[in-house]
Design brief:
single chain, 5-stranded parallel sheet
């Protein structure tokens, strides 16, 4: 996938000068060896200049990892560590950083071979707070070489997301549609996250689209679409316009990305889009998202932001869906009850008109947008990619700046059930444990909009750590509480 940050993690070992330096040297070597044997050598760099014991060593190490083009930092406490120098290193390194510490190896070597990094991590965390430095510290940050290697690997998606956000531009077209206040987007928090935003008029997009009339590249894009759709190519007459629109967006990205490396789009798709462009953009949105360029519907700026984070964390395609409708009782009893461990309230249907990538659909066909076609000629509503979403594990999540300009988020892991949707659009039957309570006490109580990002697989742990790192207050990260654990707003007298 394109549009994704590449990672190079610099590992710098530190040592308190009254502890044997050899502890940090040897433990660092074992850590690097363990990581490379398990995860490869491409993303990890061992800083060989020195063991950081002083501010001068800190400067030398910083220059070395910058020269090696590292964009993430791991400060490794091989022993107690110098709390000032190690936190100054984190302060002056511009990318995401992590602190991890060495466990003691053997019970028969606790005199000259004892490093006390267990204690040193407390001082490191205290100093990080004093200097107001953000750093990722694992749930239990003390480990053997192999355990610390695993912790660094878990740091990867967090680091990549932070790097991505610091070089992301969201390009939007037009204001939100009428009666769409739910996807409000206070932009101050975007800037706080390091994200740039370029807001454009729909008229700008319309002009750019017509500048691509008869573009010589259109036939090649149409051929790609035909190959992708296969037997699902039910609207061949619309492909040339869709190809023209795709070229409009991809050219706009290259002409407008400016100094930013990564791009996401918040696009307009109704009410006037269909009548003026002559189609709906859903299929094109799905194709760009499949390449790692998330495109949200209905000018949902924080939806596009959430999709981008999900793409980076999962290293896979994401989609954006309405938390749309409940599963009818008869359908639940016929297809779900006694077959899956969910109550009816645990289930719902996630839907959008046709924006989900073909590879994430069990089957797909090019169709028209049924909801819009109820009030418009069918021929101007063509361009949706419809089909049931593939079954399997998912993570439903969203990052949002709500109307009070505070950052909030939610994360819920569940699955798409292998149950036919019996409906239209890009759609799936979802099941999330305790969804009914989550729906009421997180989604409704937290004033979240109806759009949710979907990552394929279980990525809750990484997303939680990303949201925490970028500054979402922990108490503002909602998740589906297990049965018996009460939400703060939940009535205790049921």
């Amino acid at each position: 996938m394109k549009n994704m940050p590449k990672l190079k993690i610099g590992v710098v070992a530190v040592s308190r000068d009254c502890f044997p330096e050899s502890l940090s040297v040897n433990r660092r070597k074992e850590l690097i060896k363990a990581y490379q044997e398990k995860y490869g050598t491409e993303e990890i760099y061992e800083c060989p200049i020195c063991i950081v014991e002083s501010e001068i060593h800190m400067v030398q190490a910083l220059e070395d990892i910058k020269k090696a083009e590292c964009n993430a930092l791991v400060v490794y406490l091989g022993n107690f560590g110098p709390e000032i120098s190690e936190t100054l290193l984190a302060k002056h390194f511009e990318g995401p950083k992590m602190f991890v510490a060495a466990a003691e190896e053997r019970g028969d070597n606790l005199i000259q071979g004892r490093g006390d990094a267990y204690c040193g991590m407390l001082n490191a965390s205290y100093n990080l707070k004093l200097r107001n430095i953000k750093a990722y510290i694992p749930e239990y940050p003390i480990g053997t070489a192999e355990e610390c290697a695993d912790m660094i690997y878990e740091f990867r998606p967090i680091a990549k997301a932070v790097i991505g956000l610091n070089s992301l531009k969201i390009i939007s077209f037009g204001p939100r549609p009428l009666n769409f206040l739910a996807c409000n987007a206070p932009i101050q928090q975007l800037y706080n996250l390091g994200v740039e935003i370029e807001e454009n008029s729909e008229l700008d997009l319309f002009e750019a689209f017509h500048k691509h009339d008869n573009d010589k590249r259109i036939p090649a894009i149409v051929k790609e679409m035909e190959e992708e759709l296969g037997q699902g190519n039910k609207k061949p007459e619309i492909l040339a316009k869709l190809a023209q629109y795709e070229l409009t967006l991809t050219d706009w990205i290259e002409e407008h990305r400016g100094y930013r490396e990564y791009v996401a789009i918040a696009g307009k798709c109704w009410p006037a889009f269909q009548t003026q462009f002559g189609f709906v953009p859903c299929y094109v949105n799905s194709r760009l998202t499949a390449r790692g360029i998330p495109v949200s519907c209905e000018v949902d700026i924080y939806g596009a932001l959430s999709e981008f984070i999900g793409t980076v964390v999962s290293e896979d395609i994401v989609t954006l869906l309405d938390i749309n409708n409940n599963v009818p009782k008869d359908m639940y009893e016929e297809d779900i009850k006694d077959k899956f461990p969910y109550t009816q309230k645990d289930t719902f249907m996630g839907f959008h008109c046709g924006n989900t990538a073909s590879s994430k659909l069990s089957f797909c066909e090019m169709r028209y947008q049924l909801i819009m076609a109820r009030s418009l000629p069918e021929e101007v509503t063509q361009g949706t990619l419809e089909g049931d979403i593939i079954p399997g594990d998912i993570t439903f999540f969203r990052l949002q700046s709500t109307a009070d300009c505070k950052l909030r988020a939610y994360i819920a892991q569940g699955e798409v059930l292998p149950v036919k949707s019996r409906s239209f659009g890009a759609i799936g039957v979802f099941a999330i444990p305790q969804m009914g309570r989550f729906y009421r006490h997180v989604l409704i109580e937290g004033n979240f909009p109806h759009h949710g990002a979907v990552a394929f697989g279980n990525h809750g742990k990484a997303l939680f750590n990303v949201f925490k790192y970028i500054g979402v207050p922990v108490e503002e990260i909602g998740y589906n509480q297990p049965e018996g654990v009460r939400y703060p707003t939940e009535n205790p007298w049921k």
